[in-house]
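Subject: for your reference before the review

Hello V.,

The reviewers asked for a structural picture of the protein, and I figured it would be easier to keep everything in one thread rather than splitting it across files. Below is the amino acid sequence we used in the manuscript, unchanged from the supplementary table.
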Amino acid sequence: MVQIEQIFPSLTWRIRHEAMYADQPFDIVKLADDFDGIHFGLYADHKLTGVVSLFSSGDIYQFRKLAVLPEAQKLGCGSQLIEYILDFCKIQKASKLWCNARINAKEFYSKFGFHETDKTFSKGGNEFVVMELILNKK
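And here is what came back from the structure prediction:
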């Protein structure tokens, strides 16, 4: 049984840490603007298993820190979180949804219609590309 619901920002931190930064200090997972975002948690059999954080600027939304616990990866949890925030953004009448995708994950986001932009950067030893999806044309 899987359920997705809005969660308090601090509930995202443990999942982010275990899934993305297990070898780093815990505080690295805390975003300066965490309390300005909307956060969603995926519960698998009543256990918080995946998270994603959503931030808006007008009608443009960015998702950050999509993370699924290592033991639950490749089981569709990340896809379910993406589908959920896509639906959420459409209800909010967002014009665009974008993310900073790790280069090794860009094919995953492409499955949902995200397109690579020409914006790339390196951070923390990882290579990123900005990917975006136009939701509603103005």
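For the response letter, the relevant points are probably these. The longest strand covers residues 47-57. Helices lie at 10-20, 77-91, 106-110.

Happy to draft the paragraph if you're swamped.

O.
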